[in-house]
Amino acid sequence: MKIACIGAGYVGGPTMAVIADKCPEITVTVVDVNAQRIAQWNSPELPVYEPGLAEVVERTRGRNLFFSADVDAAIHDADVIFMSVNTPTKTYGEGAGKAADLRYLEICARKIAAVAESDKIVVEKSTLPVRTAETIQLILAAEKKQGVNFQVLSNPEFLAEGTAITDLENPDRVLVGAEETPAGAEAARILIDIYAHWIPRDKILTTNVWSSELSKLTANAFLAQRISSINAISALCEETGANVDEVAAAIGADARIGPKFLKASVGFGGSCFQKDILNLVYLCEHFGLHEAARYWEQVVTMNDWQKHRFVRRIVKALFNTVSGKRIALFGFAFKKETNDTRESAAIAVAKELLDEQANLAIYDPKVSAAQIHADLGLAPDATDEQGCPRVEVAPDAYAAAAQAHAIVVLTGWDEFVRLDYRRIHAAMRKPAFLFDGPTILNHKQLSEIGFTIHGIGRG
Ligand code: NAD
Ligand code: UGA
Q: b/e for 214-250, b at 16 or more Cβ within 10 A?
């Protein structure tokens, strides 16, 4: 059997690497229109940082896992084609700011139909609005060569970045949505047999296509909703002397609530939560379900407020002005163990601090200087009136904190816990402020060193 995956991104790359690892007799080719990204996948410096990914790629690349820019050849040869292209929020026209932009997916479908000379199973791996499979099927049927048949399956991906490999190797479940026909059932059987190489069959759920598509948006909405809920409570904790971590532990001990995804934070980031909730909001509006739309939209509103609230707290603590002050940002990725900065809360916080005329010194162990400057939209050599850099990307946390008025921790990297905070404190301006966004540091110890500490959800 041959598999092709269109889209060599954060999902396509790791997902296919694990399939190739677990199914040595299957040839897996990952293709992308971005030839530079393909070159990186074929180099020692992979474009995606994920714990364990390099080892899986090392084992499989050149054996039964291939990265190629030849999209047509991979489609032509494949029995099963995963579509794993990006589906960002639309920025133009009808639905701008909410609906999913499906143009890359449509290009994929047209390409598959134009190239295929034999029957294919086409798998939606990207996160898509409910009923997209219908559109794909229509495009494939309109453009296909005579005698060629396609079956479209929905197989959403639930991995989280930073734990992608363990999530893929040991998922809570795999979801396969198929058309309720004999041909649909046969296509689902073929896809299920691939996953059954390493996943117990009782963890592989089958539904109709629409339930599968909608389950993915719903899962992300529920996860994000828990974060916004605890973040809303964190604001109340800061006013009342309650401690949000203690509240989270107390409510999470109720088996009906559960302990996961109750960590108050500067706000959720990442490429999917916001876009998928806005997509859900758009779908509800499209079907005239305005109350349901407003309900889910509030999860995003709360998230924006949390980021803004955190910046207001920083400015207020620093005597109501950060103008011309050097502020060290520890972390820029949207969570630890990834180099991904898409929708990172750090971007919103940094931009608002820059608007307040602060100068930033940023350190992240995995994010490049070029990425940070691109995300902030500032030229790398931009300076303030005194000639100080507006954004300096530091080689380590110590260099970032030197002469800073404040440290703002934005990503929960483990190395930030292990730093020598006495050394850091000695090199900072006084009073030395520390704002712990992900609440990873020992606040009591840091207070004893002399820091003025502010944490989310504690007074
Ligand atoms: P990504 O931007 O990292 O990768 C997408 C890739 O598709 C890019 O490299 C792009 O060049 C390529 N591409 C676009 N159009 C193409 C075309 N016509 N032909 C060939 N290649 C094309 O995106 P991602 O993070 O991997 O996400 C992909 C999808 O998976 C999205 O729908 C996302 O919502 C979903 N998803 C992402 C995650 C995650 O953790 N990132 C998890 C679950 C689901
Ligand atoms: C999320 C989901 O967890 C995945 O199941 C899903 O497949 C994926 O989105 C997707 O569709 O893209 P991801 O965004 O990679 O995965 O990472 P998460 O671990 O969910 O974290 C998202 C954001 O929420 C991060 O900024 C994180 O710091 C924040 N978060 C998470 C909290 O603020 N509190 C928590 O308790 C958990």
A: bbbbebbbebbbbbbbbbebbbebbeeeebbbebbee
Position in ligand 2 atom list of the atom nearest CA 271? 12
Question: Is 263 a pocket residue for ligand 2 (Cβ < 6 Å)?
Answer: yes
DSSP, res 144: P
Phi, psi of 161 (to 5 degrees): -65, 150
Token pair in block for residue 276: 């998928």
Q: Which ligand places an atom closest to the C-alpha of 273?
A: 2
Range 49-54 average pLDDT: 97
DSSP-based three-state secondary structure for 194: helix
Q: Tell me the C-alpha distance between 301 and 283, whole Å.
A: 18
The whole-number average pLDDT for the span 80-109 is 97
Q: Assess contact for 233 and 264: CB atoms under 8 A.
A: yes
| Mean pLDDT to the nearest integer, 77-91 | 98
Which residue, chain included where needed, has tokens 């889910």? 296
Looking at the DSSP bridge assignments, the partners of residue 63 are none
Query: How many angstroms is it from 36 CA to the middle of ligand 1?
Result: 15
- Asked if residue 280 has pLDDT above 90, the reply is yes
Q: What is the mean pLDDT of residues 343-347?
A: 98
Rounded Cα distance between 64 and 17, Å, is: 9
Residue 213 to residue 193: CA distance in whole angstroms: 21
| Alpha carbon of 23 to ligand 2 centroid (Å) | 28
d(Cα 107, Cα 121) in Å, to the nearest integer?
17
64 lines ligand 2 (CB under 6 A): no
Catalytic sites, residue numbers: 157, 216, 272
In the predicted structure, residue 244 carries a pLDDT above the cut 90 = yes
Q: DSSP string covering 196-234, please? A: TTTS-GGGEEEEEHHHHHHHHHHHHHHHHHHHHHHHHHH
d(CA 41, CA 12): 11
285-334 pLDDT, tens digit each:
999 999 999 999 999 999 999 999 999 999 999 999 999 999 999 999 99
Confirm whether pTM is higher than 0.90: yes
Residue nearest atom 19 of ligand 2, based on CA coordinates = 160
DSSP 3-state of 173? coil
For the chain, what is the largest distance between any 2 Cα atoms, rounded to a whole number of angstroms? 76
